[in-house]
Amino acid sequence: MTDTIARISARWSPSVELLATTTYKLIRPFEAVALLLQATNLIASAVNDRYRSFGVPVVLALGVVHLVLAGVVLRHRGPLTRGRTWAAAWIVMIFVVQMLLAHLLAPGDFAASGVGVPMGNYALIPLAVFAFYPWGGFRDLWRRRLIEAALIVTIVLHPLLILGLMHRWQLTAAHVRSVALYAGWALVWFLVGKGMARLCRIAVQVETEGLAAGYAATLGDLHTHAERAAEQIEAGGDARRVAQDLQLVIATRRRQLLLQDEHAGAVDIFKNAIRAHGDRLRLLSGPALGGLTVPREHAILLDQGLADLLKNVVVHGGGSVEVDFAVVDSTMTLDVRDHGPGLDPERFDAPGSSLQRLRRRLIERGGELRLLPAPPDGGAAVRLTLPLQPRR
Q1: Is 367 strand, coil or helix?
Q2: What DSSP string runs through 67-117?
Q3: How far apart are CA 290 and CA 327, in angstroms?
Q4: How far is it, in rounded angstroms, from Cα 267 to Cα 329?
Q5: Which of 222, 254, 264, 340 is within CB 3.0–4.6 Å of 299 for a Cys-Cys bond?
């Protein structure tokens, strides 16, 4: 059993998964930049290199196609699919286009000087991205190295193949110098990609440490509460009471996580506040929130206000509640109505009560908490208002 767990841990670890996830998110802009640079090389080549009479329009058209592909990749991450199909199609396109360019050039121009193979950067630029690619999801180091090595060797030897076919394998010293220089630049571009990968690993390490710290601060003692609850039930404790206490602890931890973000989802705030009371609270009607998000400072107040009002319903209001929520003129309005014995205005206004403490915090933010007229069929209704923007 221990060996099985060790094998599973070796194949999957949070850092590996985070690295793969982060890399996949970054690949799209990297691919788009590479295609943009390839387009620049194509357009510049139409000016700098000697082509046959019909070659220049073809090269310019290829440059435009690469510009369009850069836009498509930036928006959709690959024009074909999000998986291996796009990577394979891009690799094939590199070799096909470079072979086409070699045959469009004027006779004797391909690798005829010591400045490198014309359009050499066209094939070398993607090497930086391929060195960054998450081949195999980073789970198999040797497989990834094999793929990278195969790409380097193939891209470096491709001009040699073109030269051999075009010159019937009668290569000159200039040809050899150009291919050697081409190989050197291939290594440079590949190391650039490895540098980007290193930066990605550093970012993932920082992210992992941040997640670990957040977990320790927010959920670290949750296991202790769960174990204590199990011990209490085994000792004959009231299972319902133990479950309620555990629900409250979980809701508190969820609140801590939820309110760490700059913007919190209103749906999550409401769901968490209702879950905290379990079967002691019956929601008769709920608000339609959609995808509304609330700034952190306002989310804290909304969360606290909802928690206090629902707790009042559970303790004094009979446990049944109707909740309405609306945003009008950038002001949130929350109505909470129960079906209990009602709420005396004097008790609502009593100094030092939880509702009055909440009211003071709301007033500081330009909001209000007030008791609405009692519904005809009894109960209590309270309205919380809070502007989403500071009032001038």
Answers
A1: coil
A2: HHHHHHHHHHSSSS-SSHHHHHHHHHHHHHHHHHHHHHBPTT-TT-STT--
A3: 12
A4: 20
A5: 264
- Structure tokens that stand for 154 in this block: 């193939």
Question: How confident is the model over 194-247, as pLDDT tens digits?
Answer: 888 888 778 777 777 776 776 666 566 666 777 888 888 888 888 888 887 777
Local structure of 329: helix, strand or coil: coil
> In angstroms, rounded to a whole number, what is the distance separating the alpha carbons of residues 153 and 174?
20
Distance between CA 99 and CA 304 in Å, rounded? 67
Transcribe 339-361 into DSSP letters.
Answer: -SS---HHHHT-TT-HHHHHHHH
Hey, what domains does the chain have and what are their CATH numbers?
2-215 (no CATH), 265-387 (3.30.565.10)
Q: The whole model's pTM is what? A: 0.53
Task: Extract the tokens encoding 356.
Answer: 């009055």
> Could you tell me how many residues make up the chain?
392
